[in-house]
Design a protein that fits this description.
Elements: H1 23-38, E1 43-45, E2 55-60, E3 80-93, E4 97-102, E5 112-117, E6 119-125, E7 131-137, H2 138-151, E8 170-171, E9 177-178
Antiparallel strand pairs: 1-2, 2-3, 3-6, 4-5, 6-7, 8-9
């Protein structure tokens, strides 16, 4: 399994609803969690691994040293729970927003300042087929909103211009590295 990177046009397509939670979907979700962790991500959508279905995984566990001391924490020590969300849907977003630089596994070495709601409610299905409601805030809300954007073919560069680019790379008019 490989993460698609820009300028792959598949990243801009809309994902389809998952009709049935079966063993194939479960295995895909577990594989996505593995590839997300290996690539040091905090979220991944199925379209990023060339599966145009509405499936998102999240999670971040700070690394620890041999003594169990946390080595790298996220902003304000926020936690990103390990979740597998099928057909996630935003049901509510706060009017209050903030701007934060976001990165993306599909746009390596690029960060974009993105304005997002600081709270979001999400309705989704879990791997057992149960409906779940999530009330997220802060970085967790941002991660969920970012991954749900992917399901609609929206990339961080659709929100603004990149502020950090790969070294020694050429840049097109949207600020995307060309190889």
């Amino acid at each position: 399994m490989k993460i698609l990177t820009y300028p792959n046009k598949k990243l801009k397509q809309k994902s389809h609803k998952v009709r049935k939670v079966d063993e194939e979907i479960r295995q895909l979700a577990y594989d996505m969690l593995k590839i997300m962790k290996v690539n040091k991500g905090v979220g991944l959508s199925a379209i990023q691994v060339d599966k145009p279905i509405k499936l998102v995984v999240t999670g971040y566990e700070p690394p620890e040293d041999a003594n169990g001391k946390t080595l790298k924490k996220l902003k304000d020590n926020e936690v990103i729970p390990t979740l597998i969300l099928i057909n996630p849907k935003i049901t509510k977003k706060s009017r209050e927003t903030d701007i934060m630089e976001e990165g993306c596994l599909s746009l390596p070495n690029i960060e974009v300042p993105v304005k997002r709601s600081i709270k979001a409610n999400i309705l989704a299905t879990d791997l057992e087929g149960h409906r779940i409601k999530i009330r997220a805030k802060g970085l967790f809300a941002r991660v969920l909103l970012h991954e749900i954007d992917h399901l609609d073919g929206i990339l961080i560069t659709d929100h603004g211009r990149p502020v950090a680019l790969a070294k020694n790379g050429r840049v097109d008019k949207k600020g995307i590295k060309k190889t």
